[in-house]
Write a structure and sequence with these properties.
There is one protein chain. With 377 residues, this protein is α/β, with parallel strands linked by helices. It contains 13 helices and 15 strands. Strand 11, helix 7 and strand 12 form a beta-alpha-beta unit. The strands form three sheets. A seven-stranded parallel β-sheet has the order 6-7-8-9-10-11-12. It has a four-stranded mixed β-sheet with strand order 3-2-1-4, with no helix packed on it. Strands 5-13-14-15 form a four-stranded antiparallel β-sheet. The longest helix is centred in the middle third of the chain and has 12 residues. It has a domain of 260 residues: TIM Barrel, CATH 3.20.20.
Length: 377
């Protein structure tokens, strides 16, 4: 007997399938003839994908700057997995790990290369904060929780140190089994060309469509040569919307040139969740529908794309044996005015609305689903 069967789930290619889950894993896909302790009849009314992964959030509740509750940015909005992007360093990652064990959302961490984490905006202005031994020991203590490292390479963070912290980040990466490295880009120095030239296959540029002068596009609107070379080497692009790091104009120009994101992430925390312009991962995904990506492309960026970038091999796809993480959502024809981090607006016609999620085989109705009484039994 299965634990849960979803009947007639609509995939993003509009095919209908049954999905059976058992012991926290996907057990069967297609036409399921068995029985289950719980069944949900979706009747083709709602889309189902692998569980959405937000690969850039801030959910360490004790952070003095960027903080939120994991379930507020996760399961309550249909996101089954969140990856905290550098809120904690070696000093406090153990406490963060313990705090996340009670969350319904699956939580992972990108370890800040500064051992003090995000206790201040300038955590890489003191090179003594970059302690390679402390990073190595933290990774050894929490190998299933720390899935990569994070280096924030903008002027407010690095101070007078320029590109030096990124050089150390690459050394740390090599000394720790080539963990995924996510690099925040923002105002210079260091210049984006310096940053891009140091990155290698699998490294992730987050805030890839920011509107700051030190952005991926030249003043003439062309892709910087250094970024083009980095992409050709296999460097990945992550959205990381955030409060100050996403421009409709940059995204539209880049996407029109075929410069697509590998992952769509929110850079969400309590303030930009409640007050905007982020609100939720689903809202950020809706913006990309409005810019011109297709529904399958958008879903790919929060499932397989996000999972591949951070080597979450049990997630991101609907396949037998993988984690029983699913997101149940609707695509509404609903005129909506979206706002980017530059306070520019875009008129959209479609809205992605997450109504429920399944995490490790357990059903959760989202806040929106509860408000609409969609799945009341």
């Amino acid at each position: 007997m299965f634990d849960l069967i979803l009947r007639q789930a609509r995939l993003v290619d509009d095919t209908l399938i049954d999905i059976a889950l058992k012991d926290g894993k996907i057990a069967q896909l297609g036409t399921v003839t068995g029985s289950a302790r719980e069944e949900r009849a979706l009747n083709g009314e709602f889309y189902v994908s692998a569980g959405w992964i937000d690969s850039h959030v801030h959910c360490y509740t004790k952070s003095p700057i960027y903080y939120d509750e994991p379930d507020s940015v996760g399961i309550a909005t249909g996101v089954t997995t969140v990856v905290d992007a550098g809120s904690t360093g070696a000093n406090d990652v153990d406490e963060f790990y313990e705090m996340t064990r009670s969350a319904a959302t699956d939580v992972y961490a990108l370890l800040n290369i500064s051992r003090v984490g995000l206790i201040a905006q300038n955590e890489l202005s003191n090179m003594a904060n970059i302690d390679k031994v402390a990073v190595r020991d933290a990774v050894k203590r929490l190998p299933g929780f720390i899935v990569g490292i994070k280096a924030r390479m903008s002027s407010s963070v690095v101070g007078e140190n320029g590109i030096k912290p990124l050089g150390l980040a690459k050394e740390i990466q090599r000394e720790n089994d080539d963990l995924p490295l996510m690099v925040h880009i923002g105002n210079n120095p260091p210049d984006l060309d310096e940053v891009a030239d140091l990155l290698t296959r699998g490294d992730i540029i987050t805030h890839c469509y920011n509107g700051k002068p030190n952005r991926i596009l030249t003043p003439a609107g062309e892709l910087r040569a250094s970024v083009s070379r980095a992409i050709q080497r296999g460097v990945r692009l992550d959205v990381g919307h955030g409060t100050a790091s996403f421009s409709f104009e940059v995204a539209k120009i880049a996407i029109a040139k075929g410069i697509l994101p590998h992952s769509i992430s929110s850079d969400i925390y309590c303030r930009n969740r409640i007050n905007g312009p982020v609100h939720s991962l689903g809202a950020v995904m809706s913006k990309f529908l409005s810019i011109g990506l297709s529904l399958p492309q958008v879903i790919e960026c929060v499932t397989a794309g996000a999972a591949d970038g951070l080597r979450l091999k049990q997630k991101g796809r609907l396949a037998v044996g993988l984690d029983a993480d699913l997101t149940i959502f609707d695509v509404r024809r609903q005129p909506t005015v979206f706002t980017d981090a530059e306070q520019q607006t875009l008129q959209g016609e479609q809205l992605l609305v997450a109504l429920a999620a399944v995490r490790a085989g357990k059903w959760f109705t989202t806040e929106q689903g509860k408000a609409e009484h969609v799945f009341d039994l």
